[in-house]
Amino acid sequence: MHLSTKLIHQNNVSHDSAAVIPPMILSTTFERGENGLDYPGGFLYSRYDNPNRRSLEEKLAGLEQGAAAICFSSGLAATNAVLQTLQPGDHLLIPDDIYFAVRSLLDQVFSGFQLSYSVIDMTNATNIEKAILPHTKLLWIETPSNPSLKITDIAAAVTIAKKNNLIVVVDNTWSTPHCTNPLLMGADIVLHSTTKYLGGHSDLLGGVLICKELNPLTEKLRTIQKLGGAVPSAFDCWLLCRSLTTFIARMEIHSKNGLALASWLEGRKEIEKVYYPGLPSHPQHSIAVKQMHNGFSGMLSILVKGNQESALQLAAKLQLFKHATSLGGVESLIEHRKSVEGPSSATPENLLRISVGIEHINDLISDFEQAFEQMHA
Fold it and tell me: Hey, which of 3, 54, 228, 314 has its CA 20 to 30 A from 242?
């Protein structure tokens, strides 16, 4: 079966009611067998496992073609779990345009854990090799990056990492497995904030780590999930399984709309620069073409001519694009990242990040047209 069919029909919660839609199991605990020792239903306690979470993890593992998926209550909880596998004194490499909360997590939560990191421009793989130290253990890749949409050559980075015995983690939230499959390029772990494109409706929080192999690292991550307790609720798991049934259909529209809007905005005099890997003008377009398929997803960023005030003015005049954080939902969003990330952010003050939804593209373009007209009035 094709992937879109599998996501609807495979790995669903089993039940005897003949209901077409899989049920939601809200019970936090499960009955023991007659001998008082075993669990005939296969479940003990919902922090450890739950029918809806197991269904979700099986679907997500198949989606990324991995051996196991480990779900968490948010993308940052999943990130936190990866960092907890490191030892005091370990060193990691992170992109210079990494999602700001990951760096904040390293600086504010793990500052006392004796971890160190180097910030690398990963658009050139040789920079990775030069930055590796004797105690480097992990390479963290985010492609496209947030919010500048830099592209890392995953295969080239993995080749360097494996020569130096590094674990490779790829945040695939923006590209999604519809466009990129990092595990097939040799990455060890793929991370998603499932809140975003996989959830797709801005109504759930979640995160997942999908491991290429079943090994001691996978088991350690599973232990952190169970004992750390940052697990998604049965309801969030049920919602996410529901969302996955339309994932392929949604991503087709997100990617088509993203390219169309990016191409149109690139020709506007009010815009200084458009960052979208599907544009030939993107500095790493050739890499994106090589490792992304089925389009280039629905995320782009623009530099508005002028300053922060100009960017905020444009965002305020849009009507369909809601000025709000997050991304990957069916609705189009726009956000001024500098004001979210704070004064230490390296993001340009005139940058707006755009999550292109699945509305009709002509309506989205018309919204920008009317906003530009208001700015010139």
Answer: 228
Distances (CA, A) of 340 to 95, 191, 267, 301, 331: 19, 23, 28, 15, 20
Which of 171, 188, 236, 367 is labelled catalytic?
A: 171
How many Å apart are CA 76 and CA 194, to the nearest integer?
A: 11
Directed axis angle between helix 75-84 and helix 100-108, to 10°? Answer: 50
The yes-or-no answer on residue 220 being catalytic is no
Choosing from 54, 59, 97, 99, the catalytic residue is 99
Q: What is the CA radius of gyration of the chain?
A: 21
CATH code that applies to domain 248-376: 3.90.1150.10
Active site residue 250: no
Question: Active site residue: 59, 150, 196, 353, which one?
Answer: 196
Q: What is the DSSP string of 305-343?
A: SS-HHHHHHHHHH-SSSEE-S---SSS-EEEEHHHHH-T
Asked if 345 and 338 touch (Cβ cutoff 8 Å), the reply is: yes
* Domain range annotation of the chain: 3-244, 248-376
Neighbouring-strand partners of residue 141: 170
Which one is catalytic: 6, 47, 242, 273?
47
**Topology alike, domains 3-244 and 248-376:** no
Nearest to 264 by CA among 361, 370, 349: 361
Respond yes or no: is residue 47 known to be catalytic.
yes
Domain 3-244 -> CATH class: alpha beta
Read off the tokens for 110. 């793990």
Single pTM value for the model: 0.96
> 64 with 181: CB under 8 angstroms?
yes
Token digits of residue 65? 């073609």
